[in-house]
Amino acid sequence: MRLILFQWRGITIWSYPAMLYLGLVAGVVAGNVAAHAAGLDAFRVYVATLILIVAALVGARLLHVASYWRLYRRSPQRIWDRRDSGAAQYGGLALALPLSVPLLAALNLPLGGFWDVGMLTILVGMIFTRIGCLLNGCCGGRPSNGWLSMYLPNHRGVWARRIPTQCLEAGLAVVLMVAAVTVWRWLPFPGALFLLVTAGYAAARLGLESLRELDPGAGRFTIHHALSVLLVVMSLAALAAGWPR
């Protein structure tokens, strides 16, 4: 566990925000490259991405707070405390996706084409962010003595041999990114890449979520399980509806 990445001249650089920032920068760069490759107006994609990143960060934080409201209602000042890490990726998508509809229309960008590019931005950002989770101890795996386990802390600083769920999810992002770049040109309509990768991630997340350490008193079926199922169903239904016959 390394909450503080480093300190320099009295300035403290916290691990999770630092890796989140690096992930956002790398994701925006990847999105810019992808926008050029897709023939989209890269500057307009850049503007839309920056605006939607803000919405995604707010949505991700709000879903995390809602998931742990019993804790935050006692200390509401922690909700926007930058030292208090915690974000739920699904919350970011839930807020950014509907907001993108009027925004992209105003910028004259295609919805499906933009989100194909945006998915690559998300995957690149996810790799760095999960490294931040690993350093911070959040999203930790359940204790295990299996061959895959590593000696890691959870968010409370309790060290044990655990399933390295943060590493597994970062690896999943790499696999999905390589697969997305490989199949992108073969897909039949703009937006198909976004739907396909969303379904793949959500399906894999069902398993990864079950490998995470449960909070005391929490049930095995979490809100993230439910959202994963919903995303799989919705993405596959949209793919089937849009796929040429």
Describe the structure.
The chain is mainly α and 245 residues long. It has one domain. Helices cover 64% and strands 7% of the residues. The protein contains 8 helices and 4 strands; from the N terminus they run E-E-H-H-H-H-H-E-E-H-H-H. The strands form 2 sheets. The protein has a two-stranded antiparallel ribbon. Strands 3-4 form a two-stranded antiparallel sheet. Strand 3 and strand 4 form a beta hairpin. Helix 6 runs antiparallel to helix 7.
How are the SSEs ordered, and which strands pair?
Layout: E1 4-8, E2 11-14, H1 15-38, H2 42-67, H3 69-72, H4 89-106, H5 111-136, E3 150-153, E4 159-162, H6 165-183, H7 192-211, H8 223-242
Antiparallel strand pairs: 1-2, 3-4
Helix pairs in contact: 1-2, 1-5, 2-4, 5-6, 5-7, 6-7, 7-8
